[in-house]
Amino acid sequence: MFSAAQYGFQRGLSTYMALLEMQISIIEAMDQNKFSLGVFFDLSKAFDTVDHNILINKLEYFGIRGVGKSWFMDYSTNRSQYVYYKGNASFTQLITCGVPQGSILALYYFYYT
User: What gap in Å lies between CA 106 and CA 101, rounded to an integer?
Assistant: First the structure.
């Protein structure tokens, strides 16, 4: 179910191993007089941009249905937030995308995207 390139968040694997595999690929390309190309990017605010509908559809695709799917739907819909600072509260805002960092939903986001 996981990509062979998924190193983080898996038992017995680490992101350090991804670096080792990249190094091996570069060395092999150099030995064969080939070019190597690395593309690296950082998804800014990745947790904040998760579309709830897409996440639920991906969970269903990977077999999470019934009660499990309902739990994720309930957890991700009708959430709101506000800021409270020095005795003043902002207006409450409905959250339509994003996952709470450190939550189980955030963990599933990393596994299935």
Answer: 6
User: Contact at 8 Å (CB) between 2 and 10?
Assistant: yes
Q: Strand runs (DSSP E) across 23-110, as ranges?
A: 79-81, 84-85, 88-89, 93-95
86 strand-pairing partners: none
Instruction: Write down the pLDDT at residue 10.
Output: 73
Residue 103, classed as helix, strand or coil, is coil
User: In this predicted model, what pLDDT tens digit does every residue of 29-67 receive, in sequence order?
Assistant: 999 999 888 777 666 677 778 888 888 888 889 888 898
Q: Give the residue from 35, 32, 69, 28 showing the smallest Cα distance to 52.
A: 69
The CA–CA distances, whole Å, from 38 to 23, 59, 63, 66, 79 equal: 11, 30, 33, 41, 39
pLDDT of residue 37: 82
- How many Cα atoms occupy the beta-carbon half-sphere of 22 within 13 Å? 11
